[in-house]
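Researcher: Here's the sequence for the chain we discussed earlier.
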Amino acid sequence: MELEAQFNRIEEAAAGFNTHYEVFKYMKGLTQGLGMTAFLIMTLPTVDFVEIGATKIITNWPAEMVDYYDAHNLMVDSPVIRRMLRSTSPFNYDVEAINTDRGEGKKSTVIDLFRRYGMEKGAYFPVHDAAGGRGAMSISGSRNFSMVEMAKLLFIATLIYDRLSQLTLNEKHKPVAFTQSELDCLRLTAGGRKSSEIAKLLDLSESAVNNQIGSVIRKLGCTTRTQAVVSALRLNIIRV
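Model: Thanks. This is the structure I predict for it:
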């Protein structure tokens, strides 16, 4: 997949996306065509969000990598996030160089994590939607991009994020029905309860609890429990 060809057709392609999954497939193909490993499209976090799982929209980052990233609080004091919050310019990154000022513990943890998954270099592209919400697209792998590539990828990122914002808004207006059991499990999850604890409280098997939470995650178009809880709270589906 040549970047020039994608740049020339991105307006038509973006307008034709009708689901998040179609965007996912496009981004996966674009990333592979560039010889890179992974992509991430996210909303830029506020002080309320300290987990990548709660801010990502779509990504092909391995689930275990996202879990590890959040478990070690690596978004807190992230130099990448700080840079995007104070500037709208795209930039290349090298995981070792950009984390120079982190505390030694987190610095080595981040570097080892991104190297483990072949994502030690790449670029971030800050973008925004029509309502002023800020986000970003990243493509990671083993190299950086030229200035010409950066300009074309920024244009692609802008149109992709705008289309995703439209799709997300449309989905929020679609009524989603939940069973009482699903809502109970979700509410307890939001309160910090583990599946084993929820099972005892609701007199269910742990497997049944996981199935209920999995159903909620799918209905909300999410991929993790954290993301589902954040989405449900935003939509006033649950309150804690």
